[in-house]
Amino acid sequence: MIRVLLADDQTLVRASFAMLVESAPDMEVVGQAANGREAVELARSARADLVVMDLRMPELDGIGATRLIVADEDLAGVKVLVLTTYDTDEHVMQALRAGASGFVVKDIHPAELLAAIRTVAAGEALLSPGPTSRLIARALSFPEVPATAGPEGLSGREREVLALVARGLNNTEIAETLGLSPLTAKTHVSRIMGKLAARDRAQLVIIAYESGLVLPGA
Fold first, then answer.
1. How far apart are CA 104 and CA 129, in angstroms?
2. Which of 66, 32, 62 is nearest to 46 (CA)?
3. Which of 187, 184, 182 shows the shortest CA–CA distance to 170?
4. Of 68, 121, 124, 193, which has the fewest beta carbons less than 10 angstroms from its beta carbon?
């Protein structure tokens, strides 16, 4: 069972997500938080596997809560899946930098949200393909600390793969685009993460955009 913690300051939203999660045979809701501080506390006490984290909450927002969860050694196995309203949230990049394993938009189809939870809980990063470029373009309009490693040491093929990761494509889609097998695509992504010392695919996206390999809106 995937133990899910829901963090959102809107009671109705939490209740709706809770009903959806509980309807899945492989998931259970172990807690609901109305702000980031509650989310951190419940992640510790409820032994959650994954936190579905809203970004805009009182007391402590989703970015701050994500930083605290990721920095806590006792919560090393807890994943964070960020929810964004797409048009209004401009802090997705900060959330990814803070350690979130990915993000989805709030108007996502119910079945897609459950699939996203399973993907992130399994240790894979997930970026909602549609808004990726737009959100990153807006986020990069604000000065941030540059990435610690760039793609200079990557091969030509690895740079192609990295660019597609930055567009939000999964391994199967990358394989289809480049005419590779899914296993080969997965191997390329793993090697790229190793070379760039990236934590996950979300961090690869940051590196790709901040290094200029991929340009927002291109």
1. 9
2. 32
3. 182
4. 124
d(CA 149, CA 128): 24
pTM of the model: 0.71
Token duo for residue 171: 């391994």
CA–CA separation, 66 vs 98, rounded Å? 6
Angle at 65 between CA 165 and CA 129, to 5 degrees: 20
Residues of 36-55 as b/e, b for ≥16 C-beta within 10 angstroms?
bbbbbebbeebebbbbbbbb
DSSP letter assigned to residue 32: E
Residue 201 reports pLDDT greater than 50? yes
Between CA 160 and CA 143 the distance in angstroms is: 26
**Token pair of 112, please?**
């897609």
124-138 pLDDT, tens digit per residue, is: 766 665 555 555 555
Token code pair at residue 140:
């990069």
Q: List the structure tokens of 126.
A: 């997930």
Q: Are 76 and 123 in contact (CB under 8 A)?
A: no
Q: What is the DSSP letter of 146?
A: P
| Interhelix angle 156-166/201-210, nearest 10 degrees | 100
**Cα–Cα distance for residue pair 163/22, rounded to 1 Å:** 36
- Residue-wise pLDDT for 175-186, tens only, equals 999 999 999 999
